[in-house]
Hints:
By secondary structure, this protein is an alpha+beta fold. The chain has helices at 10-20, 39-49, 85-97, 123-134; strands at residues 24-29, 32-38, 74-80, 101-108, 117-121. The strands form 2 sheets. A 3-stranded mixed β-sheet has the order 3-4-5.
Amino acid sequence: MYCRTLADPVVETITVMRQKVYTHVPIVEGRKIIGIFDENALFCYLADNGIVDLEGLTFIDIRDYIGLTDREMEVFTFHHKLTYLDELQNEFQKQFDRGKRLGVAFITETGKPDEDVISMLTAWDVIGWNNEISS
Length: 135
């Protein structure tokens, strides 16, 4: 799992995301998720601040745009480490039915957001898993 801290540069992260085709990058303190960086976070930052020089920009500078809550179109959920994959797949569908996109499902020991993260799943992971079992 590719993670960044608040002190890390945004431009470097964008480069890695493009090379590795990552859609979401967790921002962490230790192993605890404190934010998420994605194209929507950057878009909203630019929409509010206009054209900015990205060189030298860190996640501290855009911390108001990388929160886990209060996103207009996207949500992030936390799940117990023993959650079944079909339950996670249902969660993606449930959020879609509510008009939201489940950006990332984070896995922690008991499913609480203040715990160390064990792993994360995006819609692409769930789609890949679904295709593997139907082949």
